[in-house]
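Why this split exists: single-chain examples teach little about how molecules sit against one another. For that reason, every record in the complexes split bundles all components of an assembly together and asks for one structure covering all of them. Below is a record exactly as it appears in the raw files.
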Amino acid sequence: MTRIRYALGACTFALLLWQGIVWLTGVPSFILPSPLRVAQAALDNRVLIAENALVTATEVILGLITGTVLGAFTAVQLANSDRLHRLVMPLLIFTQAVPVFALAPILTLWFGYGIASKVVMAVLIIYFPVTSAFYDGLTRVPADILDMAKIMGGTKRQIMRRIKIPHALPSLGTGLKLAAVYAPIGAVIGEWVGASKGLGYLMLLANGRAKTDLMFASLFTLVVMTLLLSLAVTKASDHLSKP
Amino acid sequence: MTQAPTIDVRGTQFMDGVRLFGHIDVHLPAGQWTCVLGRSGVGKSTLLRLIAGLTLAGEFDGDITASDGNALANRISVMAQSDLLLPWLSVLENTVLGARLRGQVPDFDRAENMLIRVGLADHMQKKPNALSGGMRQRTALARTLMEDRPVALLDEPFSALDASTRADMQELAAEVLLGKTVLLVTHDPAEAVRLGHQIMVLTPDAAQPWPTPDMPPIRDQYAPTTVACQAALLAYLREVR
């Protein structure tokens, strides 16, 4: 409760500061609209924002689910085979050196202007953190526990299912928390490069028409959406991590 | 279940090229309890890990053989120093972990009965973090006893228990492990004298047998011969390096 109070206090302070700067400097609204003007734009364009937010949310959630499933599957395979790990891990690290943002135009070319290219973009962004975090958890089971499992005659499959995966769930949770924040970035970058719907598209459109208040309103909608997603994923992760 | 074998351990254990203990010649008679004592760091747990076939930091130059000539793998149950309970499983689920890991259908009736016998009847559905240290150790004991293997290797299994619970658990373990070949690593001379058919004192140079009182285990810990044996053993342990 105290944390929420602090967060609300900080937000109120930032908004007041922003409003104060606008009043004091008299900066034109197409450069920096006041918070009140942004709120008004959000209210006036609520249907438009909601429609586009729904598209972005769909891309983000699909990207998050697909990236998590692929990342978790990869981590289990890597943890199962040292050889595969030695083969694939350098490749994964190499792919991380490629700026995913630079791939956005190619992805749009390959997967079109629709939802697919944005989902792929989100997947590409979250795949590595999820894989890496989960793999880390899978391979950090205390040696004593694995010794016990070996003595008990545990099969590789059952040890993975009953010990390694449950042990690694908190690590997967950490990866998911990162993914929840990264996935919207991927989707919005995809929308910037080529889209006809979504909050990223709406921001570009508003910016091009000097509707800076609408751009800010879209941006805040995206922030709120990301925070809600992050909160939901954090709750789910904490639930996973609870012994 | 196969018959409990006699186990012989002969050899020298090295750690980073330096001799940890040995040359030792340890004979674990079939169906009997052998209690191993010795100073901390002398290699008691290492000896246990050697017999269990677990990987060690050092190198063992020697042989570990079973009297029936068969490999010991899958015939051993081990209770380690720490309880190794899985925090996401209930006490009952932890107790049947072995069966789960082998892909078998767990015998919950037997597990519940075992938990009742170790005094955890009211705690079966609790998670380990809701248990005291002693209760956790009793759960680990129940899990080990559930394995029903011909050879049991116990590494200070009763160390976290209060005196009365310890005595009860020693009796339960002796009853359930009757007829099995047991190696008990302990720091407690009284425990060794009470439970051991034979007692070995591990030193860097050898594993020396220590004479046990004439009566069979479980011995009366208040009997004069038992008390005298404990006292002599403790004095010896304080002496040896």
